[in-house]
Amino acid sequence: MDRPYPARDCVKEKRWRIHNLCSTLISPNARPRVKVLLPLPLADAYDYGVPDGLALAPGDFVEVPLGARRAIGVVWETIADDAVNGVPDARLKDVFSRLPAIPMPTANRDLVDWVASYTLAPRGAVLRMAMSVPDALEPPKPRIAYASRDTLPDIRMTPARERVFALLESGPPRSASDIAREAAVSKGVVTGLYKAGALDEVALPSAAALDSPDPDRPGPTLSAAQADSVQALAEADDAFSVTLLDGVTGSGKTEVYFEAIAATLRLGRQVLVLLPEIALGAQWLRRFEARFGARPAEWHSDLTQARRRHTWRAVADGSARVIVGARSALFLPYADLGLIIVDEEHEPAFKQEEGVCYHARDMAVVRARIGDIPAILASATPSLETVSNADSGRYRRLHLPARHGGAELPAISLVDLRRDPPERQTWISPTLRRALAENLAAGEQSLLFLNRRGYAPLTLCRSCGHRLQCPNCTAWLVEHRFSKRLQCHHCGYSGERPDDCESCGATDSLVACGPGVERMAEEVMNFLPEARFVVVTSDSIRRPSDADAFVQQITNHDVDIVIGTQIVAKGHHFPKLTLVGVIDADLGLAGGDLRAAERTYQLLHQVAGRAGRAELPGRVLLQTYHPDNPVLQALAAGDRDGFLATEAEMREIGHWPPFGRLAALIISGRDSDAVERVARELARTAPRSDGVRVLGPAPAQMSLLRGRHRWRLLLKATRNTPVQNQVRYWLSQITIPGSVRVQIDIDPYSFM
Ligand code: ADP
Ligand code: ZN
User: Fold this and answer.
1) Which of 74, 102, 131 is the last residue of a domain?
2) Same domain (yes/no): 235, 274
3) Distance CA 142, CA 234 (A)
4) Rounded to whole angstroms, how far apart are CA atoms 752 and 731?
5) Does 361 share its domain with 293?
6) What is the pLDDT of residues 199-235, one digit of tens each?
7) Helices (H), 583-654
8) Ligand 1 within 6 A of CB of 250
9) Is the preceding omega at residue 103 within 30 degrees of 0, hence cis?
10) Ligand 1 neighbourhood includes 575 CB (under 6 angstroms)
11) Is the pTM of this model over 0.70?
12) Cα 579 to middle of ligand 2, angstroms
C-alpha cells in the first residue's frame, strides 16, 4: 500500500507544528544556535545548539547528531538570540564539533542556494554535490614510510627480505604498500621487518604539492584576429561579464582563452575550465602543460580517492591554480576563483539529467555572477540560448572567423543514398567507398562516423517479427558482437544472444537489423581488407589513459580508418585525417525532439571539423536519404548563421526556448497504476494562468526505464513567467505517495 506522505513532508509537517506550539514559549536568552544544512535530500537546514566554548560561523563544517547517527553538515546561518524560534531549547541537540577544515566559502553556499531555488531540488541534495569528498574534511593522515637502518639486528634472511633491503638501499623511504608492490613481497614481510627492528619508520609529507602553472612562459605568436580577441578579453575588467568566443574549429579559441587564463593567474586568482568530456582531454592537457609548464588539477569521476581528497584541499587552500573538470567541478570550494571557461558550451553533456537536474553552462554563468568574475563560453557551434544572449547584448561576442595558419575548412558534400545506394546489407555507398579507398592509397587517414555503439541496434525474428527488448526498459537490446552480448544502453542489462526465438521458438531465425559501429568495421574489413582500423566508442574509451592511447595510435599513423561514435567528434586534432564519412546523417533528425535540428547541426559540424586541420585539405561526405533537409543543406553550404536564424525564428513563433520556458515533471514508480494516478492528478491541478500551458499527462516515450514506469507532463510558459513558483505551487497541492517519485526538470533537454 502507498504511504500517505513521502518522508520529507512528514518531517516538515512535524517541524511546522512544533514551531507553532513553541515559538511563544522560548525564552529570549535561549542558548546560541545555528542552522546546519546536511548533504541529504532535505530542503531545510536544521537547528542545533552551540556548546559553550565553540565559536561557529557560516560555512564551518560541523559534525552533528542526526537521530542515532552522526552526520557532517555546514553551518548555513548563525541565529541571533532574539530571532530564536523553532525547536525548543529542551529538545535542541548540540553540535558535536567543528571539523578542522577550511570553511565552505560564501560563493559556494550562495551557489548551492541559487541552484536549489532554480532547479527546485532540495537544498541538501545540492549541498551533497558541493561536499562530494567528505574525507577531505578530515585532517590529512600522515603517511608512514619505511627506511632501512644502518645497523641491522640479527634476523633470519629470506629472499623476500633481501629484496626489501635491496629496494630500500637504492632509493628513498617508501610506504609499506609501495615496498610490497615494488619488491614483490607481501605487506606482512614489511611489517615483520619493522617489528624485528630492521626498518625505521618515517613520516612522509601528506601528498606532493601541485605544480603551479607559469603564466609568463611564452605562448605562440597570435594571429591578428586572435590578438584582437585577447585584447578584448583583457579590456573587460575582472568583474562579472560573459563572453561568447565564437570561432570555427581550429581557429585558435583554445590559444585565446589560454591567454585569458594567463592573465587571471597573474592576478593570483584561480581558473576553472569546464570541458564536456574530460576523458577526452588528454590532448588538451598536453597543450596546457606545453603552454604553462605544469599540469592543471583535474576533476572528474575517474580520480582515485586520494587524488580527489588532495585536489579538493588544494582548491580550498588556493594552491590548485587551474582546475579542469567535468560539470561537478563547479561545486568545488574555490579559495579565490577569478575566471570560468566553458569550452564547447553547446554540448548536451553539460546538462545533468538525474538527481539535481541542472545545466552546468548556465550554472557556470550564475557562479560567475555570484563571484563577480568573467565567464568565457567557447564554441564553433554555439547553442541557440547563448547566441540569443549575444544577439540581445547580454553576452559579448568575439569572433574568430578563420582557421589558424590558413588551413581550409573541409568541403562538405551530401551523398544522396536514393541515387547512390549501398549494396544490400551494407551501409557505405559506392561514392564513400571510393573516397575511402583513394584516401587509403594516398596514405591519409579517414574517419567513419556513426553514432551507434555495438553491432546492430535491433535483433528481430524473421519468422514471427518478435523484437528482442530489454526486460526493464522500453528499448531494444543492442547486439555487441565483440563481447557476444545483447545490451540495454539505458539500464545496463546484458544477456546472451539466444539461438532460438524466445517468442515463436523458431531456430536460426534471429537477424541483426541496421548498423552499429562494429558492423561498419565488418564492412570495412570486407571491402578494404588491407586497411588498419580501430573502433572507438564509450565501450573502448573509459578513462583518460584510453583516450591518450587512442590519440597516440592515430598520431603515430598506426591506423588508417577510425570508426567511431560521437566520442571521436570532439576536440582532437589529427593532421593526417583528411576524410570524414558520416554513415547516417539523418539519424539525429528523426523523432521531433525540440533541439534535434540544432544538435544534428552541431554534432555533424563538429565531426566534419575533424577533417583536414593541417596542411592537407579535408573533405566530408554526409550520407542521407533526405538531401533537401534544411539542416543538411546548411551544413553543406557552411551557412551556420543562416541555419541559426531560421531555427530561432521557428522557436520564437512557437514560444519554445530560448523564447519561452519549459519545465518537465517526470512521474515514475514500480507500480504503473500509482504512477498514472499521480500523473492524472497533476494534470487536474495543473496551473492555468495566462502564458502557461501544460502538455500531458502522457506515458513517456521511454515508458519503462530501469523497471520504473514513467509518465510526463510538460509546462510551457512565456519567457517572463516565474516557472519555479508555478511548479512549486502545483506540487504543493497534491500529496504524492511514497512509492511514486516526481522529478522536476527545469529547462529540460531530454524529452524521453
Ligand atoms: P580551436 O580551439 O578554435 O579549435 P585551437 O586553439 O585548438 O583551435 O587551434 C587549432 C590548432 O592551431 C592547434 O593545433 C593550435 O596549436 C594551432 N594554433 C592556433 N593558433 C595558433 C598560433 N597563434 N600559433 C601557432 N599555432 C596555433
Ligand atoms: Zn534496460
Assistant:
1) 131
2) yes
3) 43
4) 21
5) yes
6) 988 877 666 667 899 999 998 999 999 999 999 999 8
7) 596-608, 630-637, 640-653
8) yes
9) no
10) no
11) yes
12) 36
